[in-house]
Amino acid sequence: MLQSVILAAVLAVPPAPAHTTGNLAGAVHDTRGAVVAGADLTVLVPDSPNIAARARTDAAGHFKVTGLDAGAYTIQIDRGGWAEWAPGRTDTPSAYAVVAGRTTFADSVVPAAGRLTGRVLDASGAPAAGVAVSAEDDEHARDFTGTTAADGRYSLRVAPNETYVLRFTDGHFAQYAPSTADRSAASRHPVGAGRTVRADNRLLPGASVSGKLLGADGAPVAGAQVGYVDNNAGSASAITDANGDYTIAKLPPGDFKVYFRTTEGQLQWAYQALSYAEADTFTLPAGGTATVDDQLLPVS
């Protein structure tokens, strides 16, 4: 009788539920053997825009994604400005089969990041601090940016195995290494995986525009916005001081026009023109200066 009760109790216990999901796990290192920590991973369904899961590598480069439906998945690894596919490809990702109740391992070895470094000097030979530096990858229409330190040095982490043009923007004047305002004359810098390429540069001198704005009554106009507009859609501005004077520095050479906008909203182009089309065109020589004074028209 007791045996019958025990048997009935055993038979009454429901079977353990079958696993319906599986896991993806692995580690990410680069080609120099370094751990790739803090990389954002996106788990995707192949040939679909659907995102199945997201994860991030830990301090040891490890990751684990749980609760995935059985099926095939690809893994995109974000390197901070560019991405690669597991197990370490820039294209043609591998598909990893996830089986219910199992963990599929997907380790990756990705190309080590490259680096562009150097020192930037101004036209006088002194360190140029605060210059915006951009490594431009034309093939992929992307760039990697930074700023020079107090000693003029910069260091940019870039996608490996690509070629870059270096742009330096000092104020409103964008120029390229080595010391040219013509992008087509700029050097091309190939950067391999795990390699550091040095590219120093000496800046060309910037030009400047200055002048004075007077009111219709001949008195200085303070607080007016002065706008510089060049033929390449570049722009810059300044505010007139108590004497009506202004200066806009670190400009590229070339043709430009100037407008004035008072605090009362009166807009005028030099010289005493009411529109861009009617405005005079001025020319800045390389590293030179131009003076554009004007007097406001009477307000009717």
From TrEMBL:
SUPFAM superfamilies: Carboxypeptidase regulatory domain-like, Starch-binding domain-like. InterPro entries: Carb-bd-like_fold (IPR013784), CarboxyPept-like_regulatory (IPR008969). Residues 1-18 form the signal peptide. Keywords: Signal. Gene3D superfamilies: Carboxypeptidase-like, regulatory domain. GO terms for molecular function: carbohydrate binding. This is Alpha-amylase. It comes from Paractinoplanes ferrugineus.
